[in-house]
Structures are given as C-alpha cells and as structure tokens.
Specification:
Blueprint lengths: L2 H20 L9 E5 L2 H11 L3 E5 L14 H8 L3 E4 L8 H11 L2 E4 L34 H18 L4 H26 L8 E4 L5 H7 L2 E4 L11 H14 L3 E5 L6 H8 L3 E6 L12 H16 L1
Parallel strand pairs: 1-2, 1-3, 3-4, 5-6, 5-7, 7-8
Helix pairs in contact: 2-5, 2-6, 5-6, 6-10
The site of zinc ion has 7 residues, from loops.
Length: 308
C-alpha cells in the first residue's frame, strides 16, 4: 500500500471515531479481570460485575476443589488479575503460598470464609490423609447456606467498588438485584423443607459438606467421609454408620456430583436406604446446576423428594 493509501486509511479511522463519539457511544474501559478459585463466587461476581468484569475460573465446575492445585500457568493468570476470589477456611490449602504473589502483583483477595460464622465438621477425629488434602477443623462449605452467600455477595460488591469506583452505580444496582434473588431463594428453600417430617431430616452424604445446610435448615448430618473428599472412613466407622442408618430408618442416601467413596454401595446394600440422587456439595455443576440458585434448587429438590 502507498503512503497516500495509508493516509486515507487513517483519515477514515478518525472519521469513524468522530462518528462514534457523536453518536454518544461511551468508550468502554477494559473489564476488571477477576480470577476465581470458587465456582460459587465466580457466579456471584458475574452477577454483580456484569459487563464490567471478566471472570476467569481457575477452579472450574465439576473439578474436585479438595485436590486441586494451581499450575504455574494459573499463578500467572492470578498475578495478571485485579481480584482473586477464594472460599477460605482451609478449602484452598495452597492459599498461603499464593499470598506473596498477590501482594507483589497488587491483586486484591476476597476470602468468602472471612465473613461467615464458621462451624466445625460433624465428624470428629476422622483420619486425614498425609499431604495437602488436609483441612483444619472448620467446615469450608459455607455456600450450602443461602444467608452465608448473601454475606459473601455483599463482600464481593464492596471489593468491586473499591477496585473500580467508576462502576459503583452498576455494582450497587446489580448487588441489590442479587440480594433480592437470594432472599427469595432462601424463602423457597424453607418452604420446601417444611414438607419433610422432622424425623426424616437426616442427611447421609458422601463427605461432610452439608454442615451449614444442616444448621440453617434443621437437618442432622451423617457423613460417610470427613470434611474433605480425601478422608477415607475406617471399616469400624462404616459399620457404625450402617447401624445408625438402620436405627433411624433413613430412607435415602445421597451421592455427590464429583467424588464418591466406594462404600456407598455397601451402605445401600446393608440398609433400607435407597440412592437418593446426586447433590452438588463442592461447587457448581453444569446445566441447571451451573448457577448458584440452580444448584441450590437442584440439591433441595433432590433431598426433599428422596426423604419425603
Ligand atoms: Zn467438600
């Protein structure tokens, strides 16, 4: 192309820019990059941030977050973000290793577990495996209670406003709409659970992930494994559990979407409990369970149908 042609090209470009400006189109700023270690928090930040954020899910739906370890590529992605979302309460065993990276790169960290009231795991003295799968005693699965998620949604909204004050009006409007949806969701959950006779409100699950759900909605919990999917039950523990399931006449036990212990089959074979369906314990899934509201609706419907 000749120099003259380039000049014409540049002139056309300026003309186009001027036209766009006259049409009153706002020049869109770069979206805020948010990296997320939590599928639930990724959904919340997408709702609140909308077009002002670009969300990168380091931990993707359907992966076992208990055994996830970030790759060097993930470290790079996180360092290039403005905000990192984590569940906390020991869920991400590698979080302390990440902190210096965040400080150095000026990445803001929001830990959901920091704003909820932690509860302890239901099963005491469970054996931990040797390595990084280890959890503290606090139960990290706070998103199984809708009111916890309301607290974390507020925390995420505040972080976005701090990072991007120009977006305040958008963030406040979207956060208020999300708050209203979560309020409705919490009411809906309670309306479903009142259909269950009190004596049927016992949850046998693969691992101890529904403690917050049980506390908020009034269930007793009998987990096969400890607080992590990598805590294996002893044969004595399995025998005790089978005894308790028979004694209580538990109607159904629930498998999880990601990982299940082999003894689940043994338990249904030796008790009257039937497989009650699949629940999402460790985060979001796909399809209907691809949003927080959808996941909760799926879990609650599955639980109520099987225990009714
Ligand atoms: Zn878990």
């Amino acid at each position: 192309m000749s120099a003259g042609g380039e000049f014409v090209g540049v002139k056309i470009l300026f003309f186009l820019i001027a036209m766009l400006a006259c049409a009153g189109l706002e020049v869109v700023a770069q979206p805020i990059r948010v990296a997320s270690l939590s599928t639930v928090m990724a959904d919340l930040v997408r709702d609140i941030g909308a077009e002002r954020v670009e969300v990168i899910e380091i931990v993707k739906p359907g992966t076992d977050p208990h055994i996830f370890e970030p790759s060097p590529g993930d470290y790079k992605t996180i360092a290039n973000s403005r905000l990192l979302l984590a569940s906390g309460l020991g869920f991400e065993g590698y979080l302390d290793k990440l902190r210096p990276v965040l400080e150095k790169s000026g990445v803001r960290l929001v830990v959901g577990g920091d704003v909820v009231e932690p509860i302890e795991g239901a099963c005491e003295g469970h054996e931990h495996s040797e390595d990084h799968h280890h959890h503290g005693t606090a139960d990290p699965h706070w998103w199984q209670s809708v009111s916890n998620v309301q607290l974390v949604a507020r925390q995420i909204g505040n972080a976005l406003i701090a990072i991007d004050p120009a977006g305040r009006v958008t963030y406040e409007k979207n956060a208020a709409a999300l708050e209203a949806r979560l309020e409705d969701l919490g009411k809906w959950v309670r309306l479903q659970i009142v259909q269950l006779p009190k004596k049927n409100r016992v949850l046998v699950t693969s691992h101890d992930a529904l403690g917050y759900f049980a506390k908020e909605y009034g269930f007793e919990i009998l987990p096969v494994q400890g607080i992590s999917t990598s805590d294996q039950p002893s044969s004595q523990k399995v025998r005790d559990l089978i005894g308790r399931i028979r004694e209580r006449g538990v109607k159904a036990i629930f498998a999880e979407s990601i990982e299940n212990p082999k003894v689940l089959g043994q338990i249904t074979a030796e008790t009257c409990a039937k497989p009650g369906g699949v629940i999402y314990a460790d985060g979001l899934g796909s399809g209907d369970a691809g949003t927080y509201g959808g996941m909760m609706r799926h879990n609650v419907t599955t639980i109520v149908e099987a225990l009714k």
